[in-house]
Design goal:
This protein is of the alpha/beta class. It has three domains: about 1-85, no CATH class; about 95-180, Arc Repressor Mutant, subunit A (Orthogonal Bundle); about 190-315, Rossmann fold, CATH 3.40.50. The chain has eleven helices and 13 strands. A five-stranded mixed sheet has the order 1-2-3-4-5. α4 crosses α6 (about 135-150), α8 packs parallel to α11 (about 300-315) and α9 crosses α10 (about 255-265). It comes from uncultured Desulfovibrio sp. This is Nucleoside 2-deoxyribosyltransferase.
């Protein structure tokens, strides 16, 4: 049945999946994904209710749409993970221009070799979501930034309203090379995890030691930085890191955000999770070959993580203790 998507409000296929869940397939948000009935109602009417939560703005809708589109399996959006979608930080216009450049790179080869000019449809909803744009106007602004950075050149003979064609320049290919090899000289491994007393030992005697054993330097932002918001310090340190270790135990929205942000930068993310918490995961962590650990087998966990880091990245530059 054709209705409005409760997330982005575009026309979408919305069908009843169960007594209190809706199955949505949307040209912008992707899918299919599931939405809790109560949450779908709140989002559809602007997320204003007696708890005095802020309106679900057009910008928040576009960000949530992009994040949903990134999910690899049938995903359930409900009250347990809504904060991740509502509070995730928007990308800067420069970051969005890099996203669009990466999308155009994928189109630059049609399987028969290099293709100089690629077609761009500014009104394409999936394109808007993939480059974190809210609407057609913003995609055009992002495209203009790529031209101003001299990363793209527009085909002067083929400009038709919302459609045009463009080619990646030499500077554009140089920028793509940088995007594909982020922070290759960094020795820092950022740790995203649940801040709880029971996890202190896991960080100090497992995660940190595994990173050190692989030849890298562990970094975890102090708990004070996590209160109420995703702190700028977290973003700064992820940008400085060679990789991220994300432990999903506790299912904290901040962990998923930090891992997703790192993935968007092209950084490797090493997922781990305590065995008894695996059943509650709502994100496609298994897709990333998650290391499952048990509290009585921490030596095995530490060694497995160290081996995984070395296997993917090679030995780090720092000496082991």
């Amino acid at each position: 049945m054709e209705q409005r998507c409760p997330i982005c409000l575009n026309d979408a296929s919305v069908t009843l999946a169960s007594a209190d869940e809706w199955r949505v397939e949307c040209p912008r948000c992707g899918g299919p994904f599931l939405v809790n009935d109560f949450l779908a109602e709140l989002m559809s009417r602007g997320f204003t209710h007696r708890d005095s939560q802020p309106n679900f703005s057009s910008r928040q809708r576009s960000i949530a749409s992009t994040l949903l589109r990134q999910q690899k399996v049938l995903f359930m959006l409900d009250g347990r993970n809504k904060d991740y979608f509502i509070n995730t930080r928007d990308l800067s216009m420069l970051e969005k221009s890099d996203k669009l450049l990466l999308l155009l790179e994928k189109q630059s080869s049609n399987g028969n070799g290099f293709q100089q000019y690629v077609s761009i449809d500014f009104e394409n909803l999936s394109l808007q979501a993939d480059c974190w744009a809210m609407n057609t106007k913003e995609v055009k602004a992002i495209f203009s930034i790529l031209k101003e950075r001299e990363l793209l050149t527009e085909n002067p003979t083929q400009t038709l309203g919302a459609h045009l064609s463009a080619a990646i320049t030499a500077k554009g290919w140089e920028r793509l090379e940088q995007l594909h090899t982020p922070n290759k000289d960094s020795a820092q491994g950022f740790v995203a995890m649940w801040f709880a007393p029971e996890m202190t030992n896991i960080y100090e005697n497992v995660l940190a030691l595994a990173i050190q054993s692989a030849g890298y330097m562990p970094h975890r932002v102090d708990q004070r930085e996590h209160i109420d918001k995703i702190d700028d310090e977290i973003i700064l340190q992820i940008r400085r890191s060679r990789f991220v270790v994300a432990d999903a135990t506790g299912h904290r929205g901040g962990v998923y955000y930090e891992a997703g942000f790192a993935s968007g930068l092209g950084l490797p993310v090493f997922w781990t999770c305590r065995k008894d918490a695996m059943k509650d995961l709502h994100f496609d962590v298994n897709h990333y070959n998650c290391i499952v650990w048990e509290p009585d087998k921490l030596d095995e966990f530490r060694n497995a993580l160290a081996r995984r880091i070395e296997a993917v990245l090679g030995r780090g530059p720092r000496p082991t203790t």
